[in-house]
Amino acid sequence: MTISSLAPKAERKKSRKSKAVVNENAPLLPKSHVQESDAGFDDFNGASFSGAVFNLSTTIIGAGIMALPATLKQLGMIPGLLAIIIMALLTEKSIELLIRFTRAGKSVSYAGLMGDSFGNYGKALVQICVIINNIGVLIVYMIIIGDVLSGTSSSGDHHYGILEGWFGVHWWTGRTFVVLFTTLAIFAPLASFKRIDSLRFTSALSVALAVVFLVIAVGIAVVKIFSGGIAMPRLFPVTTDVASFFRLFTVVPVFVTAYICHYNVHSIDNELEDSSQMRGVVQTALVLCSSVYVMISFFGFLLFGEGTLDDVLANFDTNLGIPFGSVLNDAVRISYAAHLMLVFPVVFFPLRLNIDGLLFSKSRPLVLDNFRFASLTIALIGVIFLGANFIPSIWDAFQFTGATAAVCIGFIFPAAITLRDRYNIATKSDKILCVIMIVLAVFSNVVAIYSDAYALIKQNKTSRE
User: Fold this and answer.
1) Per residue, what are the HEC states of 304-337?
2) Are 282 and 92 in contact (CB under 8 A)?
3) Could you give the CA distance from residue 206 to residue 341 in angstroms, rounded to a whole number?
4) Among 4, 86, 271, 407, which is 20 to 30 Å from 449 by CA?
5) How many of the other CB atoms lie within 10 Å of CB of 230?
6) CA pair distance 21, 370, nearest whole angstrom
7) What are phi and psi of 376, to 5 degrees?
8) Which of helix, strand or coil describes residue 365?
9) Which of 33-47, 107-121, 149-163, 297-311 shows the lowest per-residue confidence on average (mean pLDDT)?
10) Which domains does the chain have, with CATH numbers?
11) pLDDT per position as a tens digit, 272-326
């Protein structure tokens, strides 16, 4: 895809403006259109390259990072690291296809792009998938934050959270109060911004906190290597029968969830000062996030080996066997909980847009209707809060959304748009890759769902016996 970047700044703004006006019913239009209808909104000249990179990187790096070390335990060190890199390349290609067809059709949203290729049913389908995926992910974020700060009970054992460990068990260190306080003090204010670029500073801090988590984990691993406390990790998977082979595919939803960011591409692109930079934004964000993923997966699996849990954060609830181990455990958990708090509004932003587009497609833009904006924000945060307090298990739900809605958003829908090729701009190699992408996505995720369901049924049957 080649997009000219030689046009003067004024022409680029004009181009961004004309792109925004194409769909008058888009749920939240870029500022360039809003200024004509609501000049008092504020002065916005477009988002910067760095701000766009941080927002997209924050969209990518979420709770999926915690499950990646466990994928290496399943696949082995070498196939696991290769899978992370291959998934990054496929993600870059799928987003490149989205951008290419977005330019051709002058769409302003993912839903609009699907509607351009498959009509209203296609538009509604992508909106429903984004809603399912993002609500599930945000509930997971809120549960993890509650687990980290207030503790969690599993199989009769209670794991103390940060606040319980520091101050003891009180009503104000309890899970419900802590999650409610976090929701009112952090989530609600950050979710009130009407432009995603307004979150660029919190997104930069979020990425920095993820790097802090990585640095601490790497430091612990290096210390244990020199002290002889780390064994040689397993390099390849162990498959003894058909069931163990199929079980390898259960890692696919985790990889998909780790890279899913497609639902925010259009929001970031619409606000970008120079839209020709969007390809560079995507590539920079993916290089940054893939580097973090590779390192945390490598050192996390190296550090805990076969004892690596599905949520590697839970491994930091034990004695690390090094000086200041308890302090480092707390630092890891605090940095990650703070990271998720700042990821929350970036993932919430497209959730609100898509549910507004699904329910109020004929109404005026959401940015111009303060009552509708506030009502949707309050209602969605309330639903997520209730879900976080009543859903007992996060990882089964996480794998389900990764194997269904997330894989559709990230790979099946972009491939389908390319195969539809409404503007005759897809190459033969593009179409071949898209067919392979759809086949692999459907096969691997059907097997993953089957393997998870089979394991769950077998576990329930064993417990009854």
Assistant:
1) HHHHCCCCHHHHHHCCCCCCCHHHHHHHHHHHHH
2) yes
3) 8
4) 86
5) 17
6) 21
7) -65, -40
8) coil
9) 33-47
10) 48-361+370-464 (1.20.1740.10)
11) 988 889 999 999 999 999 999 999 999 989 888 888 877 787 778 777 778 888 8
